[in-house]
Automatic annotation (TrEMBL):
It is a multi-pass membrane protein. Pfam families: ATG22 (PF11700). The keyword Transmembrane applies. This is MFS transporter. Its main location: membrane. It comes from Aquipuribacter hungaricus.
């Protein structure tokens, strides 16, 4: 007999409020699950760790405190500075993501099994993260490959996960539901980081070297991601595909051919939604700034400001704790001002925070922690409300395809920011000038967002207009 949670239900949110809330709670947990990878691996540990391995490979006899003038061969083709390695890795992985995600979105919309696709990508990414426990010595290239795989699988799973928001929450609920998901994600990331902070700080008493402590922490994020993904996998319900182009031929050939036709149809019709595309353009810009800050913050803190790994973990723990509160606060703010105005306010704060990072004195932890708290305040609100606002602007039945473009901005086209950061650092040798360059992404994104007519965009997409826009 089929398990009740796995049955297919009609498209859209469930009519029964209690059943809808239960499904929303299951949906929240995937934010909790994947945030372990985003924070422990992507934000805190893997950047400094791979940088240290690459530095050792490039400059094996480097004196303590000296800068490495050597290079490592990225993909065996391009020589890059070890300090710029992670920025270039993220750029490579996100270009790959931008190419693959439209296919993922189209398959998800046609399959009617978003829950299964989301979990499959999550478990593949979690396996890559867990395998980072094996990366040590001169194996920086293996770690680089695992990071690329993990990032790609995360983006694919989030494409499907974000599309499911439309199926579990009514229009007037989405700001609240999206904000609670982000908040729960930050709480989960906070809790695991606290544990990992204890592992790194207490490495000696646990019988571990510093490198082993870092690798154990990286693996813990993969196991956390895999384990908690079971909750949405079991608790969500599938919806049948709607508005499928080209019918439903059986077999792989039918799926592939139909997917290509679906993508072509979506590309042709996208011009009918100018406000959606305008918002997406704004999001590409300001989210590039957000993702760049997330990706390079640990490198900036370790190399430019001189903080140790345990101090960086402490600051990110503060970011996670404040972001939990910030996501909920901005969710409440959106109820009265609308999501667009709340996002614009967050961009003003982002600009001020990144400008302050340029002036931050090296080696002084208290200002760095204060800066982290400022980032945390707006981090969750910017991302949660962008997701819920975009969900209002996409046509129903093709939400995964449109969210594939959104995730290309969320995890994919952020290569503009990281590439800019890497190039400025490579040319000038200054991380401070690199971080200052990121301000442009927030300013330009905000200016584009000002031009978006949200109400018209929702109407053009054929969706119900919420009470507050």
């Amino acid at each position: 007999m089929a398990v009740a949670q796995h049955r297919t239900v009609p498209p859209g949110p469930l009519a029964d409020p209690a059943a809808r809330r239960r499904e929303q709670r299951s949906w929240y947990v995937y934010d909790w699950a994947n945030s372990a990878f985003v924070t422990t691996v992507g934000t805190v540990l893997v950047g400094p760790y791979l940088t240290a391995l690459a530095t050792e490979a490039a400059c094996p006899d480097l004196a303590e405190g000296a800068r490495c003038g050597g290079t490592v061969a990225l993909l065996g083709l391009v020589d890059v500075s070890p300090d710029s390695l992670v920025a270039f890795l993220i750029s490579i992985s996100t270009v790959l993501i931008a190419l693959l995600l439209p296919l993922v979105g189209a398959v998800a919309d046609r399959s009617g099994r978003k829950r299964v696709l989301m979990a499959g990508f999550a478990w593949a990414g979690a396996a890559a993260a867990t395998c980072l426990v094996l990366v040590s010595g001169s194996a920086w290239a293996a770690g680089a490959a695992l990071l690329v795989v993990g990032n790609a699988c995360l983006a694919a799973s989030l494409t499907v996960y974000d599309a499911i928001l439309v199926d579990v929450a009514a229009p007037d609920e989405r700001d609240r539901v999206s904000s609670r998901g982000w908040a729960l994600g930050y709480l989960g990331g906070f809790l695991l980081l606290v544990v990992n902070l204890g592992v790194v700080l207490g490495a000696g008493s646990l019988g571990l070297s510093d490198g082993q402590a870092v690798r154990v922490s990286l693996a813990s994020a993969g196991l956390w991601w895999a384990g908690f993904t079971l909750v949405p996998f079991l608790g969500l319900r599938d919806r049948p595909a709607v508005d499928v182009v080209g019918g439903r031929q059986a077999g792989v050939a039918g799926l592939v051919g139909g997917t290509v036709r679906q993508l072509a149809d979506t590309a042709r019709e996208a011009r009918r939604y100018p406000q959606t595309l305008l918002f997406l353009g704004a999001y590409v810009l300001f989210n590039d700034g957000v993702q760049t800050v997330i990706a390079v913050s640990s490198i900036y803190g370790s190399v430019e400001l001189g903080f140790a790994t345990e101090q960086l973990i402490l600051v990110i723990v503060v970011v996670q704790a404040v972001a939990f509160v910030g996501a909920l606060l901005f969710g409440r703010l959106a109820r009265t001002t609308g999501a667009k105005r709340a996002i614009l306010l967050s961009l003003v704060v982002w600009t001020a925070v990144v400008g302050a990072a340029y002036l931050l004195p090296a080696g002084q932890l208290v200002p760095f922690v204060a800066l982290g708290a400022g980032i945390g305040l707006v981090l969750g609100g910017t991302q949660a409300l962008s997701r819920s606002l975009y969900s209002q602007l996409v046509p129903y039945g093709k939400q995964a395809e449109y969210f594939s473009l959104y995730q290309a901005a969320e995890r994919g086209t952020s290569w503009f920011g990281t590439l800019t950061f890497g190039i400025v650092q490579q040319v000038t040798g200054s991380f401070r000038l690199s971080i200052l360059a990121v301000v442009a992404f927030f300013v330009l994104g905000g200016l584009l967002l000002l031009r978006v007519d949200v109400r018209k965009g929702i109407t053009d997409a054929g969706n119900e207009v919420p009470e507050v826009v």
